[in-house]
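Give me structure tokens for this 252-residue protein.
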Amino acid sequence: MIKQFGIWLGSMWAAFAKEFNFVFIEDNRYQHIVKGFGNTLKITAGALVVGIIIGIIVAAIRSSYDKNKEAMAMHKGLSYYVFTVANAICKVYLTIFRGTPIVVQLLIFYFIIFANAKNGVPVAIFAFGINSGAYVAEIFRGGIMSIDGGQFEAGRSLGFNYLQTMRYIIIPQMFKAVLPTLCNEFIALLKETSVAGYVGIIDLTKAGNVIAGRTFSYYMPLIAVAIIYLVMVLILTSLVGKLERRLRKSER
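Here you go.
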């Protein structure tokens, strides 16, 4: 029985090695996975930076308007009208980009807005970044609104104006409060980039499809892609867990 099991196991391993060699090694097809993995990381990292920048701006505008609209309405100065218009624009932006699928947004950016683009990676970074910015903005806004109002008064007592108070006192505290949630948004963004292949970008998922199309073997390349995504998510999840534990220790 043990001998038969060993023979069966050996034959299975030989078949696996043969299939692996055919799918990935022949014609250097593994390079598609390497290229797709690199593009996935580029798109994710670039989109995260764009999303954070947009998120900070939108969150600052919306939270500033919410906290000061009554005081500004009393004076009806220029700042009141500027913030009212800016807040309305931010609301429209959030409604559109949170209310439509990322695939549709990506197609619009690639085939309509940047139709002459020769490299799809920057377009994907821009599209995913703007989409992520809508979610990051709400994360940041929730963090800013959770900061005690006395912190603003403390900034004023130090001689800071509103923008300086936001920059030096509120935003650093907000980042600490929302960092775990922001990291989870990064994990979600990593998985969302798997649709970049809709516009012909060789990301990790598209690389698996390319190999499958050339070898007519879908099992191994798609399982390999799934495992790579799973490993990346597990690593990021572990880092987020460590970060949360450190933040809890620092609060004590």
